[in-house]
Amino acid sequence: MTRAKTTLPEILSALFPDGHSAVVEDGLVGGEGPFRGGRLAVIGIDGDTALGVDGACRLAGHVLDVVRRGGGTPILVAIDSDSQRMSRRDELLGLNEYLAHLAKSLLLADAQGHPTVGLIYGHSAAGAFIATALATRVLVGLPGANPSVMDLPSVARVTKLPLDRLEAMAKDTPVFAPGLDNMVRTGAVQAVLDPDQPLADQIAAVIDAMPNEDSRDRLGRERGGRPVAEEIAAQVVRDAAFG
Amino acid sequence: MEKLSFRHATSRALPGAKPQAITGVVASGNLEVLLERTLAPTECTVEIETPIRGYGEVWAAVVADFVARSQPGGLRITINDGGARPDTVSLRLLQGARLMEV
Amino acid sequence: MGERIIDPAAKGWAISWYEASARARLDGLLDAGSFREVVGPEERRMSPHLPLFDLPRAFDDGMIVGSGRLDGQAVLVAAQEGRFMGGAFGEVHGAKLVGLLRAALALKPAAVLILFDTGGVRLQEANAGETAIAEVMRAITDLRAAGVPVIGLIGGRAGAYGGGGLIAGTCSRLAVSEGGRISVSGPEVIETNKGAEEFDSRDRALVWRTMGGKHRRLIGGADAYADDSVAAFRQVALDLIGRAPAFDLATLEAEQARLEERLTRFGDCRDATEIWARLGVNDPEAVPALATADFDALLANLRETTHDAR
User: Fold this and answer.
1) DSSP assignment, residue A209?
2) Measured between CB atoms, which of A135, A225, A233 is closest to C99?
3) CB distance C127–A243 less than 8 Å?
4) What phi, psi does A30 have (nearest 5°)?
5) Among chain B residues, CA nearest to C21
6) Could you tell me which residues come within 8 angstroms of residue C45 by beta carbon, excluding any fewer than 6 positions away?
7) Which residue of A217, C75, C192, C259 shows the fewest CB atoms closer than 10 Å?
8) pLDDT tens digits, one per residue of C107-134
9) C-alpha C174: how far from its chain's center?
10) Is residue A243 exposed (0-12), middle (13-18) or buried (19+ Cβ within 10 Å)?
11) How many CB atoms lie within 10 A of CB A80?
């Protein structure tokens, strides 16, 4: 069953029934609103927008503003994006630095006591996904979301495998197939929220139950999407030593 | 993938005491060879995984030639093949044996 | 047990970093005989997914991790083999790097060195690779916040593309050689998606001056420029360990200012040579052919190139 995706206005009005300051400009989201007696900051990408150097810089600026003000304000990263913007200009200017800077800003916020929650409600892919939703401490999704690294026709081109065979493999091989369910099984997405329950309560519950450690590889093992990653990483931790 | 496995008796153990070596990289037209000194001194096994099917006889000949030349007694040899030509395979096997003789 | 595993290419003569295997790079980078590999090839922890695609596997999944000494200092190291699946991040490949970074949190080495050589995510294991990259970036910032420098060395044939470029941008310091390219979208990917008018991937000179080591060093995307030799990378790694920036608000605010200024000053440039001219390079057309000593002399006169805003 495919469910229609939730829109950003629906998300914002569900989170902030008393109003908010979040605006969308060039597909970039920034602002905040009252939340549980404090504030909740929101940044994000809307409308399947590709993330380039300018956008990444602006979003990182929003995040650093929140960190500078302190107070442990949680940050919601709402995502319906394309992949990274693919252009000569973006690469010329050093897109890798801009995307990494955005991710680092979110990771710094987290380290300085601002709970970071990713919310994928539409598409996202590749570098844009890594720099935003995947740089939060917990990523959750809404039904209808469609994260991917690469769509299957492109995978078919690169791997030179027939599309129908890839589609058949995708059914029982979560490790490479696009889609929200597969990212859940990999452990990247912690949970899929219930669109029929109040969103603010569900986000609050996520913030209240933040894991202390990066538990994505454990989830990936438990859910069968990444069978060996946790065990390999643990073995390296166990065996690494100075001679 | 096709899996091949060969077992040979040798007249002697490969000289040297090195327990393990690896040479080569799995890439198009290349292969990696892992050598481990884990068998009885006059035994040698070669296990191969290759994406190119149907060349079992060529592999058998290359391996037999290598065993005859190097007498790699004691070695368990494992190969991940990326589609290497027989001369490349021979070269890598000899390289690997030399690394073990140190 | 590194001393058991030696590539014959690493026997003495000046080795090209670009041409060397990942194992040969490690062998020449670290103090002789000091490398101790963990989860080595003899454990055969190969990809559980590649057989499904009828693709050959590598014993180390293209990622070699362990510990060693650099001029006596204890370091942890990770090296990608760019010739195996383009050095791409699969499940095992990524998990080994994640584990190494987590191990460093307890072991507190003088540095973690990452020898990049990657096209990004391995498509056959895309979700695992992408998630591992996110885990790596989180682990790097944890480590930097704990005061352990993470140094990236980029000069392999696959460069640092895709998620590899993002990981590179998360490191404390980066060293790059002429052949080391750093980008997110590769030339072929841009051309496939946007057409040859946007990016002609067959124009190799365009590729090098847009994504190559000299351009990245000139705009401050890398902190040191190295000759294409294992010995040169060893020297720059040693130089960089001692001057790693902190991971804190001040550093990221400085990076924000640095990246905003780059957009303001160079945002309308179409070609790298225009950027170099605005940086104050007298003869931008001559940059690609400059030898390392001349290039270093040029860098010494440019203010943007050397900074702690990373």
Assistant:
1) T
2) A233
3) no
4) -155, 140
5) B25
6) A228, A232, C39, C59, C60, C61, C92
7) C192
8) 999 999 999 999 999 999 999 999 999 9
9) 7
10) middle
11) 27
CA A196 remoteness from chain centre: 21
Model confidence pLDDT, tens digit, residues B46-77 = 999 999 999 999 999 999 999 999 999 999 99
Nearest by CB to residue B95, choosing from C8, C51, C84, is: C8
Tokens of C37: 């590999």
Residues 6 or more apart in contact with residue C34 via CB below 8 angstroms: A243, C2, C68, C69
Chain A CB contacts of C162 under 8 Å are 126-127
Neighbours of chain B (3+ CB pairs under 8 A): C
pLDDT of residue A149: 82
Please report, for residues A92, A123, A219, B64, the alpha-carbon distance to residue C82 in angstroms, rounded to integers and kept in the order given. 23, 30, 29, 32
Give every strand in the sheet of B75-81, ordered side by side.
B2-9, B43-50, B75-81, B31-37, B20-24
Closest CB to A241: pick one of C67, C98, C259.
C67
String of b and e for C224-258 (b: at least 16 CB within 10 Å)? bbbbbbbebbbbbbeebbeebbebebebbbebbeb
Q: How far is the C-alpha of A208 from the C-alpha of A203, rounded, in Å?
A: 9
* Whether the predicted pLDDT of C4 surpasses 70: no
**Is A92 in contact with C167 (Cβ distance < 8 A)?**
no
- The whole-number average pLDDT for the span C164-187 is 97
Chains with 3 or more CB pairs under 8 A to chain A: C
Chain B residues inside the 8 Å CB shell of C8: 23, 95, 98-99
Rounded to two decimals, what is the model's pTM?
0.96
Q: Is C106 on the interface with A (CB under 8 A)?
A: yes
Q: Which segment of A68-72, A157-161, B9-13 scores lowest on mean pLDDT?
A: A157-161
pLDDT (0 to 100) of residue C302: 87
Mean pLDDT to the nearest integer, A188-207: 97
Cβ-contact A121, A5 below 8 angstroms? yes
Q: How far apart are CA C81 and CA B26, in angstroms?
A: 9
Q: Is the pLDDT of residue C10 over 90?
A: no
Q: Are B82 and C56 within 8 A, CB to CB?
A: yes
Are the beta carbons of B18 and C8 separated by less than 8 Å?
A: no
- What's the pLDDT tens digit per position in C209-240? 999 999 999 999 999 999 999 999 999 999 99
Which tokens is C255 given?
């990076």
C272 token code pair? 């790298």
- CB-nearest partner of A216 from C135, C141, C210: C135
Q: How many CA atoms lie within 13 A of B2 on its CB side?
A: 13
Q: For C42-76, b where at least 16 C-beta lie within 10 A, e where not — what string?
A: beebbbbbbeebebbbbbbbbbbbbbbbbeeebbb
Listed residue (C292, C272, C284) closest to C231, CA to CA: C292
The verdict on C154 touching A (C-beta cutoff 8 Å) is no
Q: Is C118 on the interface with A (CB under 8 A)?
A: no
* Phi, psi angle pair for B14, to nearest 5°: -65, 130
Using only the alpha carbons of chain B, give its radius of gyration. 12
